[in-house]
Amino acid sequence: MNRKPTLAVVGATGAVGTVLLELLSTRQDVWGEIRLVASARSAGRRLVVRGVETEVVVLSEAAFEGVDVAMFDVPDEVSAQWAPIAAAKGAVVVDNSGAFRMDPDVPLVVPEVNAHAVRMRPRGIIANPNCTTLSMIVAIGALHAEFGLSELIVSSYQAASGAGQSGVDTLRDQLSKVAGTHLGTQPGDVRRTVGDFGPFPAPLALNVVPWAGSLREDGWSSEELKVRDESRKILALPELRVTATCVRVPVITTHSLSVHARFENEVTVEKAHEILRSAPGVVVTDNPAEGEFPTPADVVGTDPTWVGRVRRSMDDPNALELFVCGDNLRKGAALNTAQIAEVVAAEFVASHT
Amino acid sequence: MNRKPTLAVVGATGAVGTVLLELLSTRQDVWGEIRLVASARSAGRRLVVRGVETEVVVLSEAAFEGVDVAMFDVPDEVSAQWAPIAAAKGAVVVDNSGAFRMDPDVPLVVPEVNAHAVRMRPRGIIANPNCTTLSMIVAIGALHAEFGLSELIVSSYQAASGAGQSGVDTLRDQLSKVAGTHLGTQPGDVRRTVGDFGPFPAPLALNVVPWAGSLREDGWSSEELKVRDESRKILALPELRVTATCVRVPVITTHSLSVHARFENEVTVEKAHEILRSAPGVVVTDNPAEGEFPTPADVVGTDPTWVGRVRRSMDDPNALELFVCGDNLRKGAALNTAQIAEVVAAEFVASHT
């Protein structure tokens, strides 16, 4: 038997799901049937994937009948309920929620870093990391393989779309209200003008907001702890020192991170450039004399992790400073999900031929 | 004799000069005559200070006749030429340019941290720090006094006005062009639309730009080295480990910094809060459960250094994470200049009574 695997896309109508359908239409076509699944609210809609109009079916046990691989891009609680059901029906689930990432029986996979972990999946579920972790981890993983990572101190510049479509809509609406004004010079003038804060705890237009996610112990945000916990798990460094401060900025899509990375071994900028240039999925743009460094406006809509501003710390020959940008909807979500699913598809094909 | 000192404001018509005149009109009135000085282009304009319309005179040796204190808010090369001339005429110069900050015979002063240094001024010149350093150093100085600072790792979120009025104009113009569009989702769409980048090396609307200042050795920007050199000098810690990554964000005014500060002694969040709450010039706003943390939109137009998101590093009992905001035109420039000048004025009055 030599068939291509059947794929289900759960959450096909969401922000990440939309990018996933685009990617499935442009990447190598490893899939047989592609079934689109969503909540009752979106079921019945017709979406185009691989040039074919496809009706969205409602999320149900029956939706997973005959499915080999299921990608989930839905809220944590929906994944928590439905991923085990899909797995019980025989699908390998690639889940982009936070529900399973720290489950010791669920691998957390970035194919460029730990593709081998895909095989250890006792629950039939593979987790996709949080978009902030994903925006830097391919570059960090490549440097770790050479220098041996010992510490990460990260400050993020996170885009509105990390908070979903409502984040994007909120920022666009706020920008319309502040454009053409002289706001942003008196305390609270922006706050009083922008109206609805949407999913953010403060205005995002003409502002930066040092908060993402929900409050956890000792003043940390859930987003900051994800960067810590997920980096440790992906890199298989359970004792890695990680500190993150997550900040939202008025950018539509593409997360940026300022990273201080300390290693076991001495580093040089030349060697770091060489490693990053040969790393799959990484592009180096690092020539400030010519104005070359990554910015979200140039990186959005692209697949790689972009790295620039590579410097060796002046006080520490073992530490590098980097500025990293990655599209949080692509490598940060949909692309990595697709890549994991393709690893599983290749395994499926190998075992069925 | 019991007269008040005569003040000259050099660069009275610039972005910082404008804020200075506002401050001189609202702070305690320690000055006798206030003379406004500017380039030939602006001379003859009439500006209001302390409710009195005052004609701007042209920058010349004669302008410093009888002046006791001269505040300079002009480009580096203008200060380099004219500050020594004003000093030779007997004025104490408080200079906000970068021309003298690292001169060992010129003190670099933040009154809350090292007011005593004002007295050691063999050249008759006192320097005001760079706005990025100033936006955090009052809070850091207070923590250092208690815990003993050993390392700073800083990522900045710097406002457009740090690049002068042309930075503000550029951002406002770019925002008008992107508001109401669906830009920010395709590579380069913002770049192609915003037109002039003004003083920035890339678009600033819907973007963040990891660059401020000019290129120095080994890929560092001048702004990043200023944070390092000036923090060391102000805190009198010539060996302090300092690493900065400076990033411009689409905010009009108020710089923010994500700071990882390591100390000689163990820290607690409670003790840090207590120190910061009692530190002159610092306001603590740190209750994420209630959405309380500093943001530029709330801090702009205010005098203090605002501190929030205080956390102890999970891997290091000697390190604190902070998110700090300060108005870069006020404490970051005009206010600190005015405060230094007031220290000199008090000294003048004491020596003349």
From TrEMBL, chains A, B:
EC number: 1.2.1.11
Quaternary state and interactors: Homodimer.
Occurrences of domain Semialdehyde dehydrogenase NAD-binding (ranges): 6-121
Family from the record: Belongs to the aspartate-semialdehyde dehydrogenase family.
Catalytic reaction list: L-aspartate 4-semialdehyde + phosphate + NADP(+) = 4-phospho-L-aspartate + NADPH + H(+)
Positions bound to phosphate: 101
Binding of NADP(+), residues: 13-16, 41-42, 161-162, 328
Function recorded in the entry: Catalyzes the NADPH-dependent formation of L-aspartate-semialdehyde (L-ASA) by the reductive dephosphorylation of L-aspartyl-4-phosphate.
InterPro entries, sorted: Asp_semialdehyde_DH (IPR012080), Asp_semialdehyde_DH_beta (IPR005986), NAD(P)-bd_dom_sf (IPR036291), Semialdehyde_DH_NAD-bd (IPR000534), Semialdhyde_DH_dimer_dom (IPR012280)
Catalytic center residues: 131, 255
Sequence positions that bind substrate: 158, 248
CDD domains in alphabetical order: ASADH_C_bac_euk_like (cd18131), VcASADH2_like_N (cd02316)
Pfam families, A to Z: Semialdhyde_dh, Semialdhyde_dhC
Listed name of the protein: Aspartate-semialdehyde dehydrogenase
Keyword list, A-Z: Amino-acid biosynthesis, Diaminopimelate biosynthesis, Lysine biosynthesis, Methionine biosynthesis, NADP, Oxidoreductase, Threonine biosynthesis
Pathway the protein acts in: Amino-acid biosynthesis; L-threonine biosynthesis; L-threonine from L-aspartate: step 2/5; Amino-acid biosynthesis; L-methionine biosynthesis via de novo pathway; L-homoserine from L-aspartate: step 2/3; Amino-acid biosynthesis; L-lysine biosynthesis via DAP pathway; (S)-tetrahydrodipicolinate from L-aspartate: step 2/4
Domain of life: Bacteria
Gene name linked to the record: asd
Enzyme class: oxidoreductase
Annotated source species: Streptomyces fildesensis
Segments forming a coiled coil: none
